[in-house]
Design brief:
Shape: globular
Radius of gyration: 20 Å
Length: about 350
């Protein structure tokens, strides 16, 4: 994925909790002739691994299995659209639900992802765009600029998005996740002088030209877990890392300063790969992740912003440090334009991938 001039991440973490089931024992099989007992089903769940997926198991899967003993989950990672495409084209779909950007699911709706029956989901208190034809949102991710406090003299660290791209004033290794959800196109445009209200439609070529200016001092991580590991290992000095990965780093004692200048936020969602044999059971599960109690729980565990206004998370000292819609954020917030990405995700991904291949 990266050119020879980039810092490569070796041994990228890929959570393989495949085979780890939520629920200690397999549910009993349906007795013959008893229509009141639901058949046992196992949903293969694909997330981003690590602390984030562990929190999802705790917030969503465990309560659902407790309420529906016939349902268990197999967890694996990471979610990869290329793998979905391969599974669909070979009529060998193994995944039932995967974490995804909503616009990636929408642009590939009906070709790589199932159209979902979500008409009975109450959207009254959900943020706009939470329910699409082929996805349902689960939280709002914020990906602020941050840095290791020990990498810069006290009070001398970067304070703006422009500083992140200023290699003379702020030398050091950068870290960026190549996932479009984490602002890899928005941040260079903001640093290049584009106003937050004028970002869309994105000028992808201009964004890549700006990224060229920090290319040689940037670790381009293939996923959030890999960049989280790089931060923990002191391999990067400043980085664009989502709130859900900053929280476990803060909890582990990492001294991190978060820069609240302009912050890119995005909806995160779930989709069902086309051809899943567990579509109906998966839809039933997905409808529960937007309920206030589950939304509050995932916010408490990961510091992500809730998509349901009825959710009232009680954030601890770590999650409150990344609360993008809280008092800690003294800057501006840009939410990714789902409509623009839904039309341009594939093209933008191709351009970015080509650029990364250098």
């Amino acid at each position: 994925m990266v050119s020879r001039s980039k810092t490569a991440l070796v041994g990228v973490s890929m959570l393989a909790v495949a085979g780890v089931l939520v629920g200690c024992a397999a549910p009993a099989e349906t007795p013959a002739g008893d229509a009141t007992v639901e058949p046992s089903q196992t949903i293969t769940y694909v997330g981003y691994g690590g602390d984030g997926q562990a929190a999802q198991i705790q917030a969503w899967q465990a309560p659902y299995t407790a309420a529906h003993p016939n349902i268990t989950f197999i967890n694996t990672a990471p979610p990869d659209i290329a793998q979905v495409k391969a599974q669909v084209e070979n009529n060998a779909v193994q995944w039932d639900v995967m974490a995804i950007a909503p616009y990636a699911a929408q642009q590939n709706c009906g070709t790589l992802f199932e159209k979902l029956d979500l008409e009975d989901v109450d959207q009254t208190n959900l943020v706009p765009g939470s329910v699409g034809e082929c996805y349902i949102a689960n939280w709002i991710n914020a990906t602020p600029v941050a840095y290791r406090t020990d990498a810069f003299p006290a009070g001398k660290g970067p304070k703006t998005v422009e500083d992140f791209f200023d290699t003379k004033k702020f030398p050091g290794q950068r870290g960026i996740v190549t996932n479009l959800q984490n602002g890899i196109l928005e941040y260079p445009l903001l640093a290049d002088g584009v106003k937050p209200d004028d970002l869309y439609p994105l000028d992808v070529d201009r964004a890549l030209d700006k990224l060229d200016t920090i290319r040689d001092v940037t670790t381009f991580a293939p996923n959030v877990g890999a960049l989280q590991q790089a931060v923990a290992a002191d391999q990067v000095d400043m980085f664009l890392l989502p709130d859900s990965r900053l929280v476990p780093l803060l909890k582990s004692g990492q001294d991190i300063t978060i820069v609240w200048d302009v912050t890119v936020a995005s909806l995160n969602a779930f989709a069902v790969p086309l051809g899943s044999t567990k579509k109906e059971a998966t839809e039933a599960f997905l409808k529960t992740v937007t309920e206030p109690e589950q939304v509050a729980k995932i916010s408490e565990l990961l510091g992500v912003a809730p998509i349901n206004s009825e959710a009232k998370p009680k954030l601890d000292e770590f999650a409150s440090q990344v609360e993008v819609y809280g008092a800690v954020n003294t800057g501006d917030t840009v939410v990714q334009d789902v409509e623009w990405y839904s039309k341009n995700f594939n093209d933008a991904s191709t351009k970015l991938t080509t650029w990364l291949a250098g």
